Amino acid sequence: MKRFFLLIFIMLLCSCHLNNIYENEEAEKAAAEKVADEFYNFIKRQEFVQSEVLFSSGFYKISSREDLQILLNATNKLVGNYQSRKLIDWKTKRIEGSNPSSEYFLVYEVIYDKYPSRDTFRLVKEDGEIKIFAYNVNSEGFIR
Fold first, then answer.
1. Which tens digit of pLDDT belongs to each residue from 62-81?
2. Which residue stretches of the chain have pLDDT < 70?
């Protein structure tokens, strides 16, 4: 009977998922901001097609490359050329353990030459690289 309980205990212990969760780490924020820096460098140079490499496979399951190009070109046409940005909010969540993952959330106030915007990024770590999973641009330029 003792062996039975010991065996059950060992099986339960082995089936446990042990994870450590780290939130809002400055180093993770800096890593996510590097991806945003690359993205805005492409936007500033109007190299919209080149920016596609920064987006995750999960993004492309929801939106096509053509949809992304339509968004980036419409933003450039209606909101204007990119000028500058300021990070106004951010969050990170990194999980280490048996089910590791990393998620990042960045919000920027962005100055374009016609209208300002609020750009929101949700990023994920995919194959060891941080990629854009969701990108949203909110600006009056789209409704005027």
1. 999 999 999 999 999 999 99
2. 1, 4-17
Task: Give pLDDT, residue 6.
Answer: 64
DSSP assignment string, 101-122: EEEEEEEEEEEESS-EEEEEEE
Structure token pair of residue 95: 């999980």
Amino acid at 16: C
Half-sphere exposure of 64 (CA within 13 A, CB side): 3
Q: Is the CB of residue 71 less than 8 Å from the CB of residue 32?
A: no
Specify the CATH architecture of the domain 19-142: Roll (3.10)
Q: For 32, what's the count of Cα atoms within 13 Å in the CB-facing half-sphere?
A: 28
**Which of these, 78, 79, 105, 111, lies nearest to 92 by C-alpha position?**
105
